[in-house]
Structure formats: structure tokens, C-alpha cells
């Protein structure tokens, strides 16, 4: 039970990190300063 919870948490963390990186890349591409 606990191991599955930790696995789920790690998956969500990885997903949000990926989403964050994609968002930053998107902003950098479409809004060059």
C-alpha cells in the first residue's frame, strides 16, 4: 500500500516537472525577449 502510494507520488512529481519544463519552453519560444 505504502509503496504504491510512493510510486504514484513519484509519477505525479515527474509529470508536473515535465509539464513545468514544457511550459517554460513554450514561453521562451513564443515570447523572446
TrEMBL record:
Q: Which UniProt keywords apply?
A: Membrane, Transmembrane, Transmembrane helix
| Bilayer-spanning residue ranges | 6-30
Keyword Membrane tagged: yes
Biological source species = Parasponia andersonii (Sponia andersonii)
Q: What is this protein called?
A: Transmembrane protein
Amino acid at each position: 500500500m505504502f509503496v504504491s502510494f510512493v510510486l504514484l507520488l513519484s509519477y505525479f512529481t515527474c509529470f508536473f516537472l515535465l509539464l513545468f519544463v514544457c511550459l517554460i519552453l513554450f514561453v521562451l519560444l513564443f515570447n523572446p525577449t
